[in-house]
Amino acid sequence: MNIILSGFNGAMGKNVLELISEDESLMITSGIDRKPNKYYTFKQFTDYSDENIKGDIIVDFSHFSLVPNMLEFCKRTHTPVVLCTTGLTDEILKQIEETSKYVPIFKSGNMSLGINLLIDIVKKASTILEDFDIEIIEKHHNKKVDSPSGTAKMIANSIKSVLNEKEFIYGREGNDTKRKKNEIAIHAVRGGTIVGEHEIIFAGTDEIITLSHSARSKKVFAKGAIEAAKFIYGKESGLYRMDDMLK
Ligand SMILES: NC(=O)C1=CN([C@@H]2O[C@H](COP(=O)(O)OP(=O)(O)OC[C@H]3O[C@@H](n4cnc5c(N)ncnc54)[C@H](OP(=O)(O)O)[C@@H]3O)[C@@H](O)[C@H]2O)C=CC1
Ligand SMILES: O=C(O)C1=N[C@H](C(=O)O)C[C@H](O)C1
């Protein structure tokens, strides 16, 4: 399978490159990033307008601002995409829905197996611990551009899918911030080289349950993205998620 790697210079791009180089069934035929890299032999492009971009599927770990043009390319050339970039706006999310009518799109804010299992457990805990206050804490490295993390948003949305009328707030500050019953607060911590930590706190009266996931290397995400590429290649148009692959 020929891969178009979006964001090849980035931390995740490098991890994907390394795994692809160990897999004989995969090859990078084109790469997209804003700066060229003289060490790479595949064809490099700075955006999706070039007609010479070739490949069977895109693996994207880049920047949200690149996503709209990438989706137009997918639609125009019928190229499926594994979309791992986070920080997606509502407008981009709408474009993803629309584009998935024409091509397969695999989208997840977190490509690890563990987070996807955690989300199932969190949903179950939320229905049982209905009266508990729920807060989410995510921690990432100091180079991360978006907050809260795509994973924290996924976790919050999964809780909302089972408990209606939840309202998300992002951190707290000020003299009138007493917790409301229906709040789910999301807190973002940034520092050093933290790969990715997510903690969901269920605080009740006199008891607390904390569920958490800790990624110990970026490889876990790269591996998940490559598995997703193999999974959606040749599939019908549509929006695919981790759940579909793990069934
Ligand atoms: N779904 C998942 O499991 C995971 C998702 N991610 C997401 O993937 C994305 C990339 O992560 P990561 O590799 O760590 O990030 P990096 O910042 O290391 O890499 C992003 C790459 O995109 C490039 N880029 C191209 N256009 C732009 C632009 N307009 N602004 C900024 N950067 C641009 C950057 O170039 P330059 O170096 O010149 O800035 C860089 O090469 C993020 O959205 C992150 O949240 C990350 C890990 C796991
Ligand atoms: O930027 C990162 O590094 C990560 N981003 C994803 C997110 O926003 O949730 C996934 C992972 O936590 C690492």
Automatic annotation (TrEMBL):
Catalyzes the conversion of 4-hydroxy-tetrahydrodipicolinate (HTPA) to tetrahydrodipicolinate. Gene3D superfamilies: Dihydrodipicolinate Reductase, domain 2, NAD(P)-binding Rossmann-like Domain. It is found in: Cytoplasm. Homotetramer. The keyword NAD applies. NCBIfam families: dapB. GO terms for molecular function: 4-hydroxy-tetrahydrodipicolinate reductase; NAD binding; NADP binding; oxidoreductase activity, acting on CH or CH2 groups, NAD or NADP as acceptor. GO terms for biological process: diaminopimelate biosynthetic process; lysine biosynthetic process via diaminopimelate. The active site is at 140 (proton donor/acceptor), 144 (proton donor). Its EC number is 1.17.1.8. The keyword NADP applies. NAD(+) binds at residues 7-12, 84-86, 108-111. It is an enzyme of class 1 (oxidoreductase). GO terms for cellular component: cytosol. This is 4-hydroxy-tetrahydrodipicolinate reductase. Its main location: cytoplasm. Keywords: Amino-acid biosynthesis, Cytoplasm, Diaminopimelate biosynthesis, Lysine biosynthesis, NAD, NADP, Oxidoreductase. It catalyses: (S)-2,3,4,5-tetrahydrodipicolinate + NADP(+) + H2O = (2S,4S)-4-hydroxy-2,3,4,5-tetrahydrodipicolinate + NADPH + H(+); (S)-2,3,4,5-tetrahydrodipicolinate + NAD(+) + H2O = (2S,4S)-4-hydroxy-2,3,4,5-tetrahydrodipicolinate + NADH + H(+). Belongs to the DapB family. NADP(+) binds at residue 35.
